[in-house]
Structures are given as C-alpha cells and as structure tokens.
C-alpha cells in the first residue's frame, strides 16, 4: 500500500537515493530542499529546517497533497569542518542547529499524525563520524552523536504506539561532497575501510527502506552502520 513518505534534504546525494528507493516501491514521496532546482518526480517543498515556521508550512503542504507523513527520513544536514582552535561559536552552533535541532523540529511535527494513527516509521541519518569521531569535525560529530540519544529516547517513548525510531550511520559515500576530495585524500580514506571502497548512495537507501518496511516492525532504537566496517567497535 502506498504510504506518504518525507525525506528531508532529498534533493541530492544520499537523500535523493533514499527518495528514489521509496518511489520505486510505490510510495508517495515528498522531499525538502533549501536551494537550487529540485529533482523531478517528487513533491518538492522548499524548507529550511532551522526555521520552525517553514517546517510547519512544509508539513501543511505535504499533508494537503499526499496525506499525513507515515514515514519520515531525517536526512538534511550540513558540515562546517574546522580544527577546534579555529572553530567559531557559529561554526559549532549552526551545525547543531541544522543537524540536531532541525531534526527535532521535523520529527516532532511528524509525530503528531503518527500518534493519531498509532503507527509510523522514523529513520534518522547519522554518520560513522558520530560514533568514532574525526579530527576537525567536533561540531558535526557532536550533532550526529546527538541523534543516537534522541532516537533511542523516542524509541522508548513512542514504541507503545507502534512507532519505530532507528538510526542509519553511513560511512564514506560516493557523493558530490566526497568527489571534491583529492585522489590522495580519497585513497587515504579507502585504506581505513575494510571493504576498501566507498559506499554507493543506493546502499544507504536500501537500509533505510528496510527499516521503514513491515519486515523491520520489531526493530527500534537501533543504530545500523552502513560503513564498510569502518566504525567497528564503536
């Protein structure tokens, strides 16, 4: 049965792959984006998740056009990498405002309809960096680690209403963001990965789609690494 799905930051990279995976399964898919031209084939809603009013308006449009959100994938995120000694307070707070507080906003708004329906699937996109850390990414790692505590608290809070909340923690993925790295940087990263390659966005999307499926109905509060073994032990 076709469900109403929302993927935040679904206009490129991992988010777009996730949106396409749900669309291929026959779901109605809405995506949010902040700038540029959104991809065709989805209900695209311009929304900055750091703005509560924009989040509210986005949900109203989605509910009007494809019904209450039954599956939420909170994927939107930003980076502002910098060594701690050079990291400004804005570098730190702006990343948390989008990656963590922004996720709080979209999850809280989706939760309203899910509680009424007594069912729902929420998947948060974290990162291997949130589990094992990375030099120059204290802000990003803190925001992504925060998603784990957030998700597990909600899993306990919402489980009795048949709402599952899980986390997918990708490793290094072959996207526009990683393609700007030099060959030397890319080779250095791959050497740390037991599977010796980058992930494809579609491999992240498959795990997300599984967690939103009936087959995963008894999985909640889980952190699923899709990182080629990079984060083992974390």
Report on the structure:
- The termini are far apart.
- This protein has one domain: 3-Layer(aba) Sandwich (Rossmann fold).
- 44% of the residues lie in helices and 15% in strands.
- The chain is built from 8 helices and 7 strands.
- It has a 7-stranded parallel β-sheet with strand order 3-2-1-4-5-6-7, with helices on both faces.
- It is α/β, with parallel strands linked by helices.
- Helix 1 links the parallel strand 1 and strand 2.
Helix tally equals 8
Largest sheet: 7 strands, parallel
Which band does the percent of strand residues land in? 15-25%
What portion of residues is helical? 40-55%
CATH third-level topology: Rossmann fold
| C-alpha termini separation | 37 Å
CATH architectural designation: 3-Layer(aba) Sandwich
Overall mean pLDDT stands at 96
Strand order of the largest sheet: 3-2-1-4-5-6-7
Overall number of strands: 7
Shape: globular
Over the alpha carbons, how many angstroms does the gyration radius reach? 17 Å
What is the CATH level 1 assignment?
Alpha Beta
Q: What is the CATH superfamily label? A: NAD(P)-binding Rossmann-like Domain
Q: What is the total domain count? A: 1
The SSE order reads: EHEEHEHEHHEHHHE
Class of secondary structure makeup: alpha/beta
